[in-house]
Amino acid sequence: MAASLQLSGRVALVTGGGSGIGRAVCELFARNGASVVAADINLEGAKTTVQKLEASSELPSGPQSHHAFALDVSDKVAVRSLVKNVTELYKQPASVLVNSAGITMDKMMVKMDEDKFDKVIDVNLKGTFLVTQAVSQAMIAHKTTDGSIINFASIVGKHGNVGQCNYAASKAGVVAFTKTTAKELARYGVRCNAILPGFIQTPMTAVMPEHLYNVIKEFIPLKREGQPSEVAEVCLFLASNRSSYMTGAEVEVSGGLEI
Ligand code: NAP
Q: GO cellular component annotations, sorted alphabetically (predicted)?
């Protein structure tokens, strides 16, 4: 049974794995045979994710093992230490990396505080770089030939959004970073793609006022918000060898928003 699963024998590192889309990715990857490392600044969230994976495991205990780690993706020392720990733990580095950790700190551009701008860039863009660099170095050293890196950008990075100049800029940067990484890592057999979600029901969007939530839904051709599990399905495709000829792609998962 395990041999037919899409991520059998793979180790997957998921940042932001303690909440929302990252948690749904962990759940789907585990059901598809991966050993999952959920890393999050919110350690309790990451631990809850791993408990869910263990509780819902459809497999006999077998070769899979899941772990939760505290991680601030914008802290280079912490990132390098985590990647070293994961490599020692599994005797191989992660061959799948999902950069899902992200934050918003909204304000109109003319009133945006410098520290809020810097913080969002630090987590969303620099964090994606730091984790990708450390994992890529480990993949190259280990001669991984089926590596897959998936970065979370946003539809907002493509079209902009009122009140989100910091977030939109960070996500546009993630797309450019993804394409460059794809070009540089192709020679090692490592692919790198970006997912651009639209409006997904997670704690990140739960803070929006209800009237705004309803207005946005009217602009979505499918007339509803997306679920984290629907984004996770695309992530699984990009992680597995089923997408073996895709690298440097921007994949929109938005219910048609902004088409
Ligand atoms: P979420 O539910 O808020 O999950 C993000 C997770 O990342 C949270 O557990 C958060 O912890 C964690 N995190 C924050 N800062 C971190 C750091 N410095 N290091 C490590 N972890 C950190 O958000 P989501 O909706 O699942 O979003 C996942 C990704 O998709 C993000 O990159 C987001 O920008 C992107 N995205 C989401 C949507 C959407 O509609 N939901 C749309 C487009 C793009 P705390 O909760 O403690 O902050």
A: mitochondrial matrix
Cα-only R_g, the chain: 17
User: Which residue ranges form the domains of the chain, and what is each CATH number?
Assistant: 2-253 (3.40.50.720)
Residue 40 has pLDDT above 80, yes or no: yes
- Smallest CA-to-CA distance from 227 within 54, 53, 24 is with 24
Q: Among all residues, which ones are annotated catalytic?
A: 167
- pLDDT, tens only, 93-136: 999 999 999 999 999 999 999 999 999 999 999 999 999 999 99
Distance 119 CA to ligand 1 centre (A): 13
Q: Is the CB of 255 under 6 A from ligand 1?
A: no
Spacing, Cα 17 to ligand 1 middle (Å):
9
Run of H or E including 70: strand 67-70
